[in-house]
Design a protein that fits this description.
It is built from 12 helices and 11 strands. By secondary structure, the protein is of the alpha/beta class. Helix 1 packs across helix 2, helix 1 runs antiparallel to helix 11 and helix 4 crosses helix 12. It holds the Pfam family E1_dh. Its cofactor is thiamine diphosphate.
Length: 433
């Protein structure tokens, strides 16, 4: 199914087009595309080009349909999206790096090298690569607790990310952030956030500062963009709605990227959301809502280009729902027994890395030897990252309260650099504080 846009009573409506419509002349539909006459009698709209699936039996999936009057703009999906050889190899390398890094994390976690909760990104690589690899270095991203691959895509070295997971001083947060709190000022990674939705206001604030620099401080070259990544479970939280409202009201340069992997820990998205079509919440706040197949990096990249360029031009925010799937449990502590095996098999067959590899071969953009060379390079870099992390020093005890208090010497660390709590008189006379 493909889509055209229609203006009706000052609203943009997505209208299904018969799937038998010739596709040879299709072009990606711009958010400012020509509008066609609305047909209220058109067939019921599902809201997902891939469709939301749920499984009651191991072999027979069925569609979960909801009839509604959709209000949105959807990008047409074409089957002949083109990339150059260099772009193709870049996308492939980034996706394989993300997948291999997460597999190495699982190995190190089960060997006792990492502690706490570790949430892996396997299966969702098309979203991170499709969006982040279109950004400039000056653009910023905000992530969730599933943040390793976002950091890698943004350019944070695998050594720094692995060391952070090991809790070492050479990590990107000097060992104080761990798996769920990746941060890099140099690469404009504004943090992974463990609490649901708390990163969205941070990204919105970053986008506001970008607009302020450009329009108030007259910094003409400040046309940077912020990306906020979050999951489907976040889209019923207050911060999400508040920030969509502010971003649309002030036309902030931000893209809200929903990584809808259909599960919020063990809760099915279908069961938790009154209307599972998340993209529809964008037009409710005056911004385009876009749905894209999040298992296809080329389709994600096309949507990313449109949304990011739109934000950079000063035309405001976009809400993009990427329908994807995680191949592992919610975290490495999750036995993943709640999801039906047939559902997992269905999405495993749509592995985004396998799909890209097939595209590169079919279009003669890469040879098998070129991809094997990339694979070997990544394997060697990850072995190096692990070795580097293991040999790196533990953080000094004196940094424990750094970045916790505005003036750590005024509370946790005394003028001599020692912990005040080590002083037997530490609590004396402080009952009134």
């Amino acid at each position: 199914m493909s889509f055209t846009a229609t203006k009706f009573s000052h609203s943009l409506l997505a209208v299904p087009v018969n799937s038998s419509t010739p596709r040879s002349n299709e072009k990606p539909l711009s958010f400012s595309s020509d509008l066609f006459k609305h047909n209220p009698s058109s067939s019921s709209f599902l809201g997902s080009t891939q469709k939301f699936l749920r499984f009651n039996s191991p072999t027979k999936p069925f569609l979960h349909r909801r009839s509604s009057s959709p209000v949105a703009v959807l990008l047409q999906q074409t089957s002949n999206l083109l990339i150059t050889k260099e772009e193709g190899l870049l996308l492939y390398e980034d996706m394989v790096l993300g997948r291999s890094f997460e597999d190495k994390c699982a190995e190190m976690y089960y060997r006792g090298k990492m502690f706490g909760f570790v949430h892996l990104y396997n299966g969702q690589e098309a979203v991170s690569t499709g969006f982040i690899k279109y950004l400039r270095k000056e653009d910023c991203i905000v992530s969730t607790y599933r943040d390793h691959v976002h950091a890698l895509s943004k350019g944070v070295p695998s050594r720094a990310v692995m060391s952070e997971l090991f809790g070492k001083a050479t990590g990107c947060c000097r060992g104080q952030g761990g798996s769920m709190h990746m941060f890099s000022k140099e690469h404009n990674v504004l943090g992974g956030f463990a609490f649901i939705g708390e990163g969205i206001p941070v990204a919105t604030g970053a986008a506001f500062s970008m607009k302020y620099k450009r329009e108030v401080l007259n910094q003409a070259d400040s046309d940077n963009v912020a990306l906020a990544f979050f999951g489907d479970g976040t889209c019923n939280n207050g911060q999400f709605f508040e920030c969509l409202n502010m971003a649309a009201l002030w036309k902030l340069p931000i893209v809200f990227v929903v990584e809808n992997n259909l599960w919020a820990i063990g809760m099915s998205h279908i069961r938790a959301t009154s209307d599972p079509q998340i993209w529809k919440k964008g037009p409710a706040f005056g911004m385009p809502g876009v749905h894209v197949d999040g298992m296809d990096v080329l389709k994600v990249r096309e949507v990313a280009k449109e949304a990011i360029d739109r934000a950079r031009r000063g035309e405001g925010p976009t809400l993009v729902e990427c329908e994807t799937y995680r191949f592992r449990g919610h975290s490495l502590a999750d036995p993943d027994e709640l999801r039906n095996p047939a559902e997992k098999d269905h999405y495993a067959a749509r592995d985004p890395i396998t799909a890209l590899k097939k595209y590169l071969f079919e279009n003669k953009l890469a040879t098998e030897q070129e991809l094997k060379t990339i694979d070997k390079k990544i394997d060697e870099s990850l072995e190096d990252a692990v070795e580097f992390a293991e040999k790196s020093p533990q953080p000094q005890r004196s940094q424990l309260l750094e970045n916790v208090f505005a003036d750590p010497k005024g509370f946790g660390i005394g003028p001599d650099g020692r912990y005040r709590c080590e002083d037997p008189k530490f609590t004396e006379g402080t009952a009134h504080v």
